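Sequence, please.
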């Protein structure tokens, strides 16, 4: 994912999380905040998920699902927090769940 689509600074992530707008899923939480420029994403995976290989695999899956659709959605800052149940699930289930959450965010932000 290109740098312009990433959120790296802890202060920015904290502002989004403290905004307290979130969508829950079976496999992750997505905290969101309306943005003026582009859609940016931060992905957080806890050490409870497993070793570094499993955590990086979870991040790659989330990035691959979101990357092709970054410009299709209205601008927002997203923080994806992966839950513990994530590692045992099929890719298609995660993809459908992610699209459902992103569509919910779209409806809530831009009614």
């Amino acid at each position: 994912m290109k740098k312009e689509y990433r959120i790296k600074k802890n202060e920015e992530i904290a502002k989004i999380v403290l905004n307290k707008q979130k969508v829950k899923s079976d496999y992750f939480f997505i905290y969101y905040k309306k943005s003026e420029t582009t859609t940016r994403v931060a992905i957080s995976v806890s050490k409870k998920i497993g070793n570094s290989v499993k955590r990086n695999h979870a991040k790659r899956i989330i990035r691959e699902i979101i990357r092709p659709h970054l410009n299709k959605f209205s601008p927002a800052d997203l923080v994806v927090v992966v839950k513990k149940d994530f590692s045992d699930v099929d890719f298609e289930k995660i993809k459908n769940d992610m699209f459902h959450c992103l569509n919910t965010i779209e409806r809530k932000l831009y009614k």
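The two ends are 28 Å apart (CA to CA).
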